[in-house]
Amino acid sequence: MIEYLLLLISVIVFVGIIIGKVGSKYGIPALLLFLFTGMLFGSDGLGFKFENTLVAQEVGMVALAIILFTGGMDTKMSEIKPILLPGLLLSTLGVLLTTLFTGLFIYWISGNFALGVTFGLPLSLLLAATMSSTDSASVFALLRSQRIHLKRNLKPMLELESGSNDPMAYMLTIALIDFLTQSSLSLGELFFQFVIQFAVGGALGLFFGWVAVWIVNRIHIPNRTLYPIMLLCVLFFTFALTAIAKGNGYLAVYVAGIVLGNVRLHHRGSINHFFDGITWLVQIILFIMLGLLVNPNELLQVAPLGLLIALFMMFVGRPLAVHLTLIPFRSLGVKGKSYLSWVGLRGAAPIIFATYPVVSGIPGSSLIFNIVFIVTLLSLLVQGMTISPIARFLRLAVSAPSEGNFMGMEIPEELGTQMQEKEVTATTLSHGDELRQIELSDEELVILVRRKNRFIVPKGSLKLHIGDILLVVSEHTKQPTSEERHHQLIKRIRKSLLQ
Q: Lowest CB count within 10 Å: 85, 126, 314, 435, which one?
């Protein structure tokens, strides 16, 4: 039967990719379409049955670890330093407030209105905790696919929050499950677990991040394609060992990814390509699998409550938590905080966290899973499709810079050079339209010219056109030390005196 299983899986994934490609033209999030693909092939669709919640949870853990690691490698410290404090507050205090506000709303509305479902306070808070984090897979994918460039450092803040708030949501979910299953568990014990998870996860993430850097930069392997595989082994080792040590594995792999993304790393090009590809693969598999796991007929029972919870989180719970958390940071402004509130997408992480109550046998856990699924669908549909329009409406979107390297060329990082693309404009041609006449620094060299779909080998006499793309290689400029700047200043003074 393995042949039939492989045939079915390949068809489902392929159909999901094609649907995602078509949907992206109309601004529909690809991850939402992967969910719909799973539902299409599921038990209420074409009849493929997948009901193993434990397998879905374990696959989700692996996928989320890879997604967070890749997101960490894409996080640049130079970008997040200015917004490090507000970003971390959003990923901790913001998640806690979202859980509290949403949990109280669920408890109130389910107990006072005939919606067919009634939740006690602990179960209401557990449901809210599973949905309290913004999903890193959804945020990373949408911000990159739509090439949104935002003012006020909002993009790095969103990426930092979405990459670092899953550990908090995970710990809240596990703590509340422990509280429901172990009535003797005290608040002091819960707080101690939080501290241990954060401390151990952060420390081991830093340690194994530097170990990974040492391995890549010091160990020579003739086949460079093996370096990404070694990093994948380090990723899983870090996640597993941290979990065994009672730390938070998700936090550890995210921190390790940040370390790798902010140092000089040999073979970075092949490593980035590998992890970009595998991240998309696990995202596709994960969202399709979660779509297969749900039965659309079971969603009808909780649809009214799920709709009200989704609307509350979009327009009240998340905005209230964001604005309260960011009160000290006035530079973000009301518009910036409002946009951060809106891009609180739910995705794979909440659905994965919703499997934990099911596996733990919590009464009413199947209802929790279905409600989380409805909220995720609505979030991806409403918020995911309006990221760009809302940014333009709030006047926070600016023209995105060139993504770079779309010619498919890379230079090894260890050579100490960098490559960028420059578009030829009327200003570029102000001194003449020949390549030799444009202004370049002494460290820059044009190695290729792209004109529409044609590539041209550059020569000094080449006549440039407005819209041409120049591929420019330059040396990294080393910043002088204070002592070197002092000597340079003395030399300039001496030179001016002699003249």
A: 85
